[in-house]
Specification:
The protein is α/β, with parallel strands linked by helices and 191 residues long. It has a single domain, classed as 3-Layer(aba) Sandwich (Rossmann fold). Helix content is 38%, strand content 21%. The protein contains six helices and seven strands, in the order βαβααβαβββαβα. The protein has helices at residues 18-33, 54-61, 67-77, 94-103, 144-154, 172-187, and strands spanning 3-9, 37-43, 80-84, 110-113, 116-119, 125-131, 159-165. The chain binds flavin mononucleotide. Flavin mononucleotide binds next to helix 1.
């Protein structure tokens, strides 16, 4: 049986982004670990995801096929998600926020019960690769990781590993250290 990996790339620099290059390392590693790995790529720079708006809600209500359906089907089919998540202005890229706006749908990826919200995307693992110009891990300036942990958990994805590449714009030494720390984290991961 295949092991489906969904790679969501959100760097505005596409494949040149640091998060994208680290994601490529992780994808290569997962492929080398298992011949059954099948990768689907969703590149948010080229596959433009519009802001989620009332017209999209209208189309969904009318039962029309939408990009949101396609994005949800990709996540549902995935066993493992790899999310490239650079920090832009202390949070996720707006493209990645739009992707989450499209995939969070009541009755499909989450539902409200008498006991509160329940995520419906079960048995999935996520790797988030977050690249930053500065250093923010575990500090109040990091609005990105808490958001990602919350929204992923909300739709049922609770097995999440964050890979950090920090200090990328703080000079050569910090940049090299930040990238090698991320590569070391990646080297021990498995599908
Ligand atoms: C629009 C924009 C906003 C950014 N905002 C931040 C920020 O708030 N904090 C930070 O540490 N780095 C910030 N950076 C630096 C990026 O996080 C850094 O360049 C990182 O390598 C980007 O990842 P990428 O190469 O995968 O796109 C910003 C970069 C851009 C282009």
């Amino acid at each position: 049986m295949s092991h489906n990996v969904l790679y969501v790339e959100s760097s505005i620099f596409g494949a040149q982004g640091v998060s994208s290059q680290l994601a490529a390392d992780l994808l290569q590693q997962l492929r080398s670990q298992s011949p059954d790995v099948v990768v689907t790529e969703r590149q948010l720079r080229s596959d433009t995801i519009p802001h989620f708006d009332a017209s999209t809600i209208g189309a969904i209500t009318e039962g029309k096929a939408t990009l949101a359906d396609e994005l949800i089907a990709e996540v549902q089919a995935a066993d493992t998600l790899i999310i490239g998540a650079p920090m832009y202005n202390f949070g996720v890229p707006t493209q990645l926020k739009a992707w989450f706006d499209h995939i969070a749908r009541a009755g499909v990826t989450f539902r409200y019960t008498a006991n509160g919200a329940e995520g419906l995307l079960k048995n999935k693992r996520a790797y988030v690769i977050t690249s930053r110009g500065g250093i923010h891990k575990d500090s109040v300036s990091d609005a990105e990781v808490p958001f990602l942990r919350n929204i992923l958990g909300f739709v049922g994805i609770t097995d999440v590993t964050f890979i950090y590449a920090e200090g990328l714009n703080m000079g050569d030494e910090y940049r090299e250290n930040g990238i090698s720390a991320a590569k070391e984290q990646i080297a021990v991961l498995a599908a």
